[in-house]
Design brief:
The chain is α/β, with parallel strands linked by helices and about 425 residues long. It has one domain: TIM Barrel, CATH 3.20.20.140. About 35% of the residues lie in helices and about 20% in strands. The strands form four sheets. Strands 1, 2, 3, 4, 5, 16, 17 and 18 form an eight-stranded mixed β-sheet that branches. A five-stranded parallel β-sheet has the order 11-12-13-14-15. A hairpin with a 2-residue loop joins β2 and β3. It is globular, with a radius of gyration of 23 Å.
């Protein structure tokens, strides 16, 4: 009898826990905000979005949605909800200060930083070691407290088609999400990958059911790659105005165009002290030692007098011109920054990229769609990118409407990944 009495507190605790769990609010309802769903449709006013176990279960207006008993309500009238931003072209884990250093710890650090800036998914296009693959494989949890990651592994090269095929096989064995190639001569300073090599890579990647993402600079290379079956152009065409044939090939391939305007900006902006060094949204997470290094007059002078700097300045304007032209022509645009390498501040640069896209002539809604529903590719298209029933509750609550002013993407009040609020 004495033994049984000892168990009474335990039984009471068990009863308490059971009672609590039956009353537990499993779902969350965000009520009253203006909601941009990432599909490109006009925003929903006075919206309700409900999510449970990481997924969206209902979305609509307050007059059409009944909030279930198991949902705890959060009033967000006057706020704007938009999907988490997706960076379709980044590089994760490869930088320390202004040096190239790759490590698992840097991958983890970068993904937290991206999440803090409302970037909930990053496609890392090259320089990804097995550590990145392992970190990607850990993300299938509703308690994720950092950005989602998809990886290309090492950028594929090869002096012969056979060697290139072997390198594709190695990346495939690592279980990467896609294959990255570079077809460029770095403004005439390097040898460009030959068509026979990239054609072998494209063919081998397709045997592994992997899509090829192509770094390009020149229009003719972009067209040749599209003719070889590439469906993702990872940078702007920067040598000249795109033509009708390019537009036709993009559409025929159902291809995605990723402008990476901030990549160009990063090549010349440090010739002087950039305006964004004053932005509290930047300074919140910036490394002051890096800022000091970039302000160094000797360094500035080197940037200012570099031939590449001045060529890329011109390339930047060509890129913006082509972006507007392609957007108007109905080509699918995916926001990407090529951020991550030294001096390209990931998390923050995505917000500057959106501003540049609007400056190029896109509407704020077009830029946001490019950074959400249109930025997601591969198998993730059914899960991420837009706020729709069945998809992941990856979203952010903003204090001001980015459709009124694109800089309002910086008014982040909270970021949610898989229905879980990032601390
Ligand atoms: Zn890149």
């Amino acid at each position: 009898m004495r033994m049984n009495l000892r168990f009474i507190p335990l039984l009471l605790l068990l009863l308490f826990v059971t009672t609590c769990s039956t009353k537990k609010k499993d779902a969350i309802a965000l009520v009253g905000a203006t909601l941009i769903d990432g599909t490109g449709k006009a925003p929903i006013k006075d919206a309700v979005i409900i999510f449970e176990k990481g997924k969206i279960t209902a979305i609509g207006t307050q007059s059409t949605i009944t909030i279930p008993d198991n949902a705890s309500q959060i009033k967000v009238a006057g706020k704007t909800i938009m999907p988490g931003i997706i960076n379709a072209h980044g590089h994760i884990g490869g930088t320390e200060g202004l040096s190239a250093v790759y490590s698992a710890a840097n991958v983890a650090r970068d993904l937290k930083l991206n999440a803090a800036y409302g970037i909930t998914t990053v496609y890392s296009l090259g320089g990804d070691g097995k550590e990145s693959v392992a970190i990607r494989d850990e993300q299938d949890t509703i308690l994720l407290n950092r950005s989602r990651l998809y990886v290309a592994g090492e950028v594929i090269t090869g002096s012969t088609p056979e060697e290139a095929r072997t390198n594709v096989d190695k990346n495939a064995a690592m279980n990467v999400d896609y294959i990255k190639i570079r077809v460029d001569d770095n403004l005439g300073t390097a040898e460009k990958m030959k068509p026979e090599i990239y054609q072998a890579i494209i063919e081998q990647a397709s045997k592994h059911n992997l899509q090829v993402v192509a770094h390009i600079f020149y229009l003719e290379d972009a067209k040749a790659l599209l003719r070889s079956g590439v469906k993702f152009i990872g940078h702007s065409v920067r040598d000249q105005k795109v033509d009708e044939e390019f537009i036709r090939l993009m559409k025929e391939n159902d291809a995605v165009y990723c402008p990476t305007l901030m990549r160009e900006v990063s090549t010349f902006v440090y010739e002087d002290t950039p305006e964004f060094f004053q932005d509290p949204f930047f300074l919140k997470h910036a490394d002051t030692a890096v800022i000091q290094q970039l302000k160094d007059p000797v360094r500035k002078q080197l940037v200012r007098t570099s031939l590449a700097t001045n060529i890329y300045k011109g390339a930047f304007f060509v890129a913006k011109y082509n972006l507007k032209l392609l957007s108007d022509a109905g080509v699918r645009i995916a926001m990407g920054t090529d951020a991550g390498p030294p001096g390209r501040f990931q998390g923050y640069f995505e917000h500057l990229e959106l501003e540049q896209m609007v400056d190029a002539g896109l509407t704020p809604l077009q830029a946001i769609t490019a950074a959400t529903g249109h930025a997601v590719y591969n198998k993730q298209q059914s899960q991420l990118g837009t706020l729709e029933v069945g998809k992941a509750a990856d979203l952010q609550i903003l204090g001001a409407d980015p459709l009124q002013h694109i800089q309002n993407t910086r008014t982040i009040e909270s970021v949610w990944i898989g229905g879980h609020k990032i601390p």
